[in-house]
C-alpha cells in the first residue's frame, strides 16, 4: 500500500478475539492438498522471484525490468500476455483459460518501490546498496511472486482435474503514487471478471471485509505561472509563481482547522523556481487529499481548487492543475474473505527458525523499534465490528477495483513486526528467508481460494449479492478522473536513466548465487 497495511493493524490489535464463521462452500480437501504441494514445489522459484524483483528496485512507472521479468515467467508458463494495458508501458495482463466456462478470477499485487530507500537486505542497520537509489521500503517485491506461485499451482490442479475457469494476473504499477488502478478500471481491464484477489505484504496472515478504514484520495499538482524579472533590480516587474505556491500552502494549512478530523492532506513543492535572483516564472506544488468517503474526497479536491485559484488571484499569477492519480476507499467482500480466512486457518503461519526470530529482533533493537517476535499464530478475520470504525489514514488504489468487482486483499507474513512503513527498516527482511516463507504461505492461501471460487459457483453468486446489496448500499463509486486525465507515465524516468547503470551491477544473478544475500556477502542472521 501507499502507507501501511490496515488489515494487519486491525488483526493484530484485536488478535485475542475469536470470530465464529458460517460454513462456506469450498473446494475439496484433496484438491487443496494438491495445490499446497504445487506451491511447495515452487519454493526455490519463489525465492528467486522475490530476490530478483528486490534487486531491480524500480519506482512507479519505471518498473521496466520488473514487468518484463514477471510477465516473461507467465508467458513461459502458458499465459497470454498483453503489455502496455491502459496506456501504461509497465502494466500488463497475463491470462490463461481452461475449458469454455467457469469464473474469471483476477489476481494482482503491486510491483513498484520508493525513492531514496535503497537498502541492503539481511542487515539491521541502514545501509544503501546504491546511495540515493530507490528501494523496496514497503516490500512490493514480494506480492507478484506470491500471486504467480499461486496461479501456477492453481493452473496445475485445474488442468489435472479438468476444472473450468480463467486466471488473469496483473501488476499494480505506481501504487506508491496511487496512480494507475483507476485508469485500469476506466480502460475496462476488469470487465468480465467474476472475483478478484489482491495481496499486500504484512507481518500477519490475514484478510477482512467491509469498509476497511482506508481513505480515498486524489493526487493533484498545481502549477502557477507568473512573470520573471530581476529579483533585486526590478522586482516590481515580476509576479512570483513561488509566492502563489507559498500562499496556497499557508491558506491550506489555515483551512485544516475547519476540515473533518478524518481527512489527511499533505504536499511537497515540486518546482520552486530556477535561482534566487530571478523572480520564479513557474512553480508547482503536489497535494494528496484524503478522506473516508467519495463525497468527502470530492469536497477536499474542490476546496483545494478554490484555494489555488485564490492564491493565484492574490499574487497576480495563473494556475493550472493536473490530476496525477486517484484511489477509492477500500471495501472488502465478505463471502470471499470468509472463504480465504478458512484457508488462512488451514495454512497457518510459517515455521520460523531461530535465525528468523533473531534477525527480526536485531532489526527492531538496532532501529529503536518496539520488540516483538515474528508471529506464530493466525489472528482473527478482520470485520467491521472488530475494527470498530477505525480510520487508518492510509490509502491503496485497489479500492477502485473493489468498487468494480468483488475483491479481497490477503495480507501475507513476509515482513517484521513494527518496522516503519516507507522506510529502510521495511526493506531489511524483504530478500531474506522471512520474506520467502511469508510469500509461500500467502501463495497457498491464494491458490486454495482460487480453487474455492473455481469449483463452487455459489461462492461467486454470494460475492456478487454482497457486492450489490451490501457494499452498494453504503456508497457509490465516484472517481474524480476527467476524460483528459491520463497516467503520468513520464514520472521517475530521468531519475532511473541516471541511476540504473549504477544499480545494474547489483542485480541478482541466480545462476551464480543461491540467494541475493549470498551474492551481497551477507551473513544471515549475523551475530548479536
TrEMBL record:
Keywords in alphabetical order: Signal
Record's keyword annotation contains Transferase: no
Keyword Signal: yes
Source organism superkingdom: Bacteria
Leader sequence residues: 1-25
Alphabetical list of Pfam families matching this protein: M20_dimer (PF07687)
Domain Peptidase M20 dimerisation: 213-310
Record PANTHER family: PEPTIDASE M20, XAA-ARG DIPEPTIDASE
NCBIfam families per the UniProt record, alphabetical: amidohydrolases
Name of protein: Amidohydrolase
Amino acid at each position: 500500500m501507499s502507507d501501511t497495511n490496515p488489515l494487519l493493524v486491525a488483526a493484530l490489535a484485536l488478535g485475542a478475539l475469536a470470530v465464529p464463521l458460517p460454513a462456506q462452500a469450498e473446494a475439496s480437501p484433496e484438491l487443496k492438498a494438491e495445490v499446497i504441494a504445487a506451491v511447495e514445489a515452487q519454493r526455490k522459484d519463489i525465492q528467486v522471484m522475490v530476490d530478483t524483483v528486490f534487486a531491480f528496485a524500480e519506482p512507479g512507472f519505471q518498473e521496466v525490468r520488473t514487468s518484463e521479468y514477471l510477465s516473461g515467467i507467465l508467458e513461459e508458463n502458458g499465459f497470454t500476455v498483453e503489455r502496455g494495458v491502459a496506456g501504461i508501458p509497465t502494466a500488463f495482463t497475463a491470462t490463461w483459460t481452461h475449458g469454455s466456462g467457469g469464473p474469471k478470477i483476477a489476481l494482482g499485487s503491486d510491483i513498484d518501490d520508493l525513492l531514496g530507500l535503497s537498502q541492503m537486505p539481511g542487515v539491521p542497520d541502514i545501509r544503501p546498496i546504491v546511495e540515493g537509489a530507490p528501494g523496496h521500503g514497503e516490500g512490493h517485491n514480494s506480492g507478484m511472486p506470491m500471486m504467480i506461485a499461486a496461479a501456477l499451482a492453481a493452473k496445475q490442479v485445474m488442468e489435472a482435474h479438468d476444472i473450468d475457469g480463467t486466471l488473469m494476473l496483473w501488476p499494480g504499477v505506481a501504487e506508491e503514487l496511487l496512480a494507475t488502478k483507476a485508469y485500469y478500471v476506466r480502460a475496462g481491464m476488469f470487465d468480465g471478471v467474476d472475483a478478484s484477489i489482491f495481496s499486500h505484504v504484512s507481518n500477519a496472515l490475514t484478510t477482512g471485509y467491509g469498509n476497511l478504514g482506508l481513505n480515498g484520495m486524489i493526487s493533484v499538482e498545481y502549477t502557477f505561472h507568473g512573470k520573471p524579472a530581476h529579483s533585486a533590480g526590478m522586482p516590481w516587474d515580476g509576479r512570483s509563481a513561488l509566492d502563489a505556491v507559498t500562499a496556497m500552502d499557508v491558506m491550506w494549512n489555515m483551512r485544516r482547522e475547519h476540515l473533518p478530523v478524518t481527512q489527511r492532506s499533505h504536499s511537497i513543492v515540486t518546482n520552486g523556481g530556477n535561482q534566487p535572483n530571478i523572480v520564479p516564472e513557474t512553480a508547482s506544488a503536489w497535494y494528496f487529499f484524503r478522506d473516508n468517503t467519495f463525497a468527502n474526497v470530492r469536497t477536499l479536491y474542490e476546496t483545494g481548487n478554490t484555494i489555488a485559484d485564490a492564491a493565484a488571484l492574490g499574487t497576480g499569477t495563473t494556475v493550472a492543475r493536473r490530476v496525477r492519480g486517484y484511489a477509492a476507499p477500500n471495501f472488502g467482500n465478505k463471502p470471499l474473505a470468509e472463504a480465504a480466512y478458512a484457508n488462512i486457518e488451514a495454512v497457518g503461519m510459517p515455521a520460523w527458525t531461530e535465525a528468523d526470530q533473531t534477525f527480526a529482533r536485531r532489526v527492531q533493537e538496532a532501529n529503536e523499534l518496539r520488540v516483538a517476535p515474528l508471529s506464530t499464530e493466525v489472528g482473527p478475520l478482520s470485520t467491521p465490528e472488530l475494527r470498530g470504525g477505525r480510520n487508518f489514514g492510509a490509502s491503496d488504489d485497489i479500492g477502485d477495483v473493489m468498487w468494480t468487482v468483488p475483491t479481497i486483499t490477503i495480507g501475507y507474513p513476509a515482513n517484521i513486526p513494527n518496522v516503519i512503513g516507507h522506510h529502510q527498516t521495511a526493506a531489511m527482511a524483504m530478500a531474506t528467508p522471512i520474506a520467502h516463507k511469508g510469500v509461500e504461505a500467502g501463495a497457498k492461501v491464494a491458490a486454495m481460494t482460487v480453487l474455492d471460487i473455481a469449483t463452487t459457483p455459489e461462492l461467486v453468486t454470494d460475492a456478487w449479492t454482497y457486492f450489490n446489496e451490501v457494499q452498494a448500499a453504503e456508497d457509490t463509486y465516484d472517481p474524480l478522473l476527467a476524460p483528459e486525465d491520463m497516467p503520468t507515465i513520464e514520472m521517475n524516468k530521468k531519475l532511473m536513466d541516471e541511476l540504473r547503470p549504477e544499480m545494474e551491477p547489483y542485480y541478482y544473478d541466480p545462476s551464480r548465487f543461491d540467494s541475493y544475500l549470498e551474492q551481497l556477502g551477507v551473513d544471515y542472521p549475523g551475530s548479536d
